[in-house]
Amino acid sequence: MNLLIKGGIVVDPVSGTVSEKDILVADGKIAGSGVGLHHPDAQVLDVPGKLVTPGLVDMHVHLREPGLEAKETIYTGTRAAARGGFTAVACMPNTRPVADSAAVIISIVNRAAADGAVRVYPVGAITNGSLGQEMAEMGDMKQSGAVAFSDDGMPVMDSGLMRRSMQYAKMLNAVIISHCEDKKLAGGGLMHEGDVSTMLGLKGIPAAAEEVMVARDILLAEDTGCRLHIAHVSTAGSVRLVREAKSRGVRVTAEAAPHHFTLTDQAVIGYDTSTKVNPPLRTAEDVAEIRRGLADGTIDVIATDHAPHTAEEKDVEYELAPFGMVGLETAVGLVWTELVAAGVLTLAQAIAKMTINPAKILGLPLGSLGAGAAADITIIDPAAAWTVDPAQFASKGRNTPFTGRVLHGLPYATIVSGRLVMREGIVL
Ligand SMILES: NC(=O)N[C@@H](CC(=O)O)C(=O)O
């Protein structure tokens, strides 16, 4: 099957160029691009005015399968990804059982092959059960398809164990993704520690709970030579630590989630439990520094930390609700509205942080529209204005604080390996 994508504005994050041209897809690969392409028997997709980008890659997603299928499944989570314009997702290991063995990694890979609408790349746990006690079989997991290692949500508090894990990961040329949180400093807090937490009477999580661990892990990455990726950076101090480490040549990269460059702790006023997220929503100064970090390249990646929970779990007092919000189906709208239209990032910069940059960090051959590359393509309507309505989500999770918000920029089509998997919001 051949596909001719005609008249779109092609964004090439590798060269940083944006230009109007056609793209021809044949046998699941990019066959070529240029102006005024023709092909006798290709299906034509006419997309004047729309953005044509490499398939978006979300390197931080919770698909919840195996074991937590009431929240999300690989079937529903990958359909949410397709609706959000993502052609590939990396899924975090905090499932039941935890993805800490080759057996679980293989079961996720197999389930994704059977049920997945988009590509799924499992992240393996650093420690058995993510309990921070002993190192998991990272080598076995890597051979079985794990693309990175993380104890996301359950940070490795034992610095000696983290150092040995980094030494081992370095031997495997694997990246460690660190959820930076000192659990003792976080102290069971529910939201950012500051004026708003004081006013609301909710226990706070200080910025230092994150920054102490960012600093520790940077020092350990420097010590071991391991590649380190800092997940969901939420504070100005973390951005500064990563910036300084990069300037010294430490092999560190970082990501930010849309909610952390969009919302502040003010969103918690009203006690909407969908604003309860880990790390928490911080202050306007933090948001400003994250935007600066995105603009100057300190933050390489935009990733959603899509964390679906059931309505029953979230429909409780703020204190009792689990941390997490969904993100796959609002990410493109938030990036376009808050970063590109707002002039924080150029279009090519924003797309690089959602394509080639995460692909490089995970070592995946994705993120480019070059001839011969897999035809993973995202088409975005930048002119569309739309209102966030969780009832429309393909995700089982409806826990978003963005309900009712008007966004600009809507994924129009998602193409995986040359196959249309989503068009105009409908997963095919
Ligand atoms: N990010 C979140 O708020 N929640 C994550 C776990 C975590 O990282 O704490 C989840 O799995 O629900």
From TrEMBL:
Zn(2+) 1 binds at H60, H62, D152, D305. The active site is at D305. GO terms for cellular component: cytoplasm. Substrate binds at H62, L63, R64, N94, N278, H309, F323, G324. Binds 2 Zn(2+) ions per subunit. Its cofactor is Zn(2+). One of its GO terms (molecular function) is dihydroorotase activity. Zn(2+) 2 binds at D152, H179, H232. PANTHER family: ALLANTOINASE. Catalyzes the reversible cyclization of carbamoyl aspartate to dihydroorotate. Belongs to the metallo-dependent hydrolases superfamily. DHOase family. Class I DHOase subfamily. This is Dihydroorotase.
